[in-house]
């Protein structure tokens, strides 16, 4: 057994709605607002696409997800040889870490970001530098100052989970211009479809200028397909060719590929999700005193509090399951009715 695995623990899901109801004596419905899922679900066209392929379940999928790869290639206008799919970004992060990292290598990322960068680096016996947040968001200067000869990967998350914050196009461009070209900078854009800020990075354009800028995108969040497990990386062709060697041959299921195709095709639905989310997101910022909330470009909001567990419990009693962190609570933006309840709790809670 790899010794470093003892440092880690398996992913801890929160209590199930049923267990929570029992523990807190809650009547009525509980809403899962802890994992940033799209409560509206995927485009209705996804169901049709899936049912059309129900007679193929005995067959392995085509290796490498060629249909959705072609569609993404056209959608983003990038060469299909620069795209690699995984069973969600979780698997993409695992594959990259496995392919790149070995004992003594170093990754640089931020504290309070997506945990899988850290987790997979430790599995590969790499060292992890987690740069503290600055003003509630990524400290790109601080990250840059940690990049050295041992650094094999830099992980950025934009907008960041769980803080909800983002860095701008100009900030990312300046950052990339100062990172040595041979060090991959991986930018996780799991929430990019929810972004409405004008100065958010056009990372595809930056990729043309910086061949070491790699992008992660997923169908799990705005596209509403978290249960189907499909996400991808857009990177330099040489990197993709290497990473593809360690990809499990049939990692993305048939139905997942067809679901993603149908979801991608229905951009009007995606637009409606973005608009609804932005409207509800604005409601929080219009109604709750701003020092309590981090700015957000995502489908969740990070509430700053010194009493996260108490706030989590107060929200739970109103039927909303959220996620607590050491210095705050992350709430997924829900349906209007739940958002109104959560806003009321936030306004009455002494943070
Ligand atoms: C949800 C999330 C992921 C994982 O997405 P999957 O594609 O469902 O594995 C990756 N990165 C960030 C920042 C996320 O929030």
Automatic annotation (TrEMBL):
Key word Transferase present: yes
CDD domains, A to Z: AAT_like (cd00609)
Catalytic activity annotation: L-histidinol phosphate + 2-oxoglutarate = 3-(imidazol-4-yl)-2-oxopropyl phosphate + L-glutamate
Coiled coil location: none
Protein origin, superkingdom: Bacteria
GO biological process, one term: L-histidine biosynthetic process
Needed co-factor(s): pyridoxal 5'-phosphate
Keywords: Amino-acid biosynthesis, Aminotransferase, Histidine biosynthesis, Pyridoxal phosphate, Transferase
Known partners and oligomeric status: Homodimer.
Name the UniProt record assigns to this protein: Histidinol-phosphate aminotransferase
Species: Staphylococcus ureilyticus (Staphylococcus cohnii subsp. urealyticus)
Gene behind the chain: hisC
């Amino acid at each position: 057994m790899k010794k470093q695995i003892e440092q880690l623990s398996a992913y801890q899901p929160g209590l199930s709605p049923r267990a929570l109801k029992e523990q807190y004596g809650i009547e009525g419905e509980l809403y899962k607002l802890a994992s940033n899922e799209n409560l509206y679900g995927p485009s209705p066209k996804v169901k049709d696409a899936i049912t059309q392929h129900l007679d193929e379940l005995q067959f392995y999928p085509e290796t490498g997800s060629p249909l959705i790869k072609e569609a993404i290639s056209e959608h983003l206008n990038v060469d299909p040889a620069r795209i690699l799919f995984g069973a969600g970004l979780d698997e993409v992060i695992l594959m990259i870490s496995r392919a790149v990292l070995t004992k003594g290598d170093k990754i640089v990322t931020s504290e309070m970001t997506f945990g899988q960068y850290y987790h997979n680096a430790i599995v590969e016996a790499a060292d992890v530098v987690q740069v503290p947040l600055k003003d509630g968001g990524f400290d790109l200067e601080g990250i840059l100052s940690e990049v050295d000869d041992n650094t094999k990967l830099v992980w950025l998350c934009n907008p960041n989970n769980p803080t909800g914050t983002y860095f701008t196009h100009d900030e990312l461009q300046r950052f990339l211009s100062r990172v040595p070209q041979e060090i991959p900078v991986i930018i996780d854009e799991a929430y990019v479809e929810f972004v409405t800020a004008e100065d958010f990075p056009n990372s595809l354009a930056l990729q043309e200028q910086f061949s070491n800028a790699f992008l992660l995108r997923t169908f799990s969040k705005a596209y509403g397909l978290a249960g189907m497990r499909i996400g991808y990386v857009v990177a330099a062709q040489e990197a993709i060719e290497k990473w593809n060697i360690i990809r499990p041959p049939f990692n993305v299921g048939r139905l997942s590929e067809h679901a993603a195709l149908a979801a991608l095709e229905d951009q009007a639905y995606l637009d409606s999700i973005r608009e609804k989310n932005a409207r509800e997101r604005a409601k929080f910022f219009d109604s709750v005193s701003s020092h309590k909330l981090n700015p957000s470009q995502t489908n969740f909001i990070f509430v700053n509090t010194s009493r996260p567990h108490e706030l989590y419990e107060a929200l739970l009693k109103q039927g909303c399951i959220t996620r607590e962190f050491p210095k705050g609570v992350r709430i997924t933006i829900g349906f209007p009715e739940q958002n109104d309840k959560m806003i009321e709790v936030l306004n009455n809670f002494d943070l």
